[in-house]
Amino acid sequence: MREELNAVLSERRRIQVEYQQRANEIKSDLYAPWQPAQVFLTTVRKAVAARMLKEAQVFPRIDHRCLEVGCGTGGWLADLISWGVREADLHGIDINALRISRAKEILPAADLRIGDATELPWDSGTFNLIISSTLFTSVLDPGVRRLIAREIVRVLAPGGALLWYDFAFNNPKNRHVRGISSSEVRKLFPQLAGKIRSVTLAPPLARLIVPASWTLASLLEAVPFLRTHLLAALIKSVSGGEH
Length: 243
Prior knowledge:
- This protein has helices at residues 2-25, 36-55, 77-82, 97-106, 142-155, 182-188, 203-209, 214-221, and strands spanning 66-69, 90-94, 111-114, 127-133, 156-167, 192-201, 227-236.
- By secondary structure, the chain is of the alpha/beta class.
- The chain has one domain: Rossmann fold, CATH 3.40.50.150.
């Protein structure tokens, strides 16, 4: 228990430092919503996610409670509103107070909290849909990853879904993230079952191609080895065991 606590505290400090470094080093408009590549990547990701949830018969309904773990300044929460989820049924948590403050300005009716994903402040079985987006690859300690996964499964309702989106490969330019393969996703969530697929044209390539041709970017994204992320819709069985 003491080792787990030390690992959690160490990861928390490291991630907070990394937040600050990235804020200082990355151009403020790199991920701006008006950037052509960002529009392309977000549009494709959202469309594939919606289709996967629909095919798995877990697309969120108007009365569903939804949580994003590591929501930052809003993450996917606005997408959920566009899918018909009420703002009051949106919940989010992030360890960065400034990001949560900004998210509250954007989504004042949502339940947005500062906190650690290893101890989610909600009751078991609360949420119909939980989103984890580019969260686990920022957590380098395997034990802490398992703690977060366990908490996600705990607060996910039977029959509910985890929507996972994250890097599948290491980024040679960023040693502070570590890619997670589909087999590792399965090991993190043995209680959940569902489809995992590769998505997202490599962002550096998208930034180069999309401003010139959206069509060419779409064709390139169809090439598996040019995709860098995994998108999964993983379901918790109604019985609580394997789906």
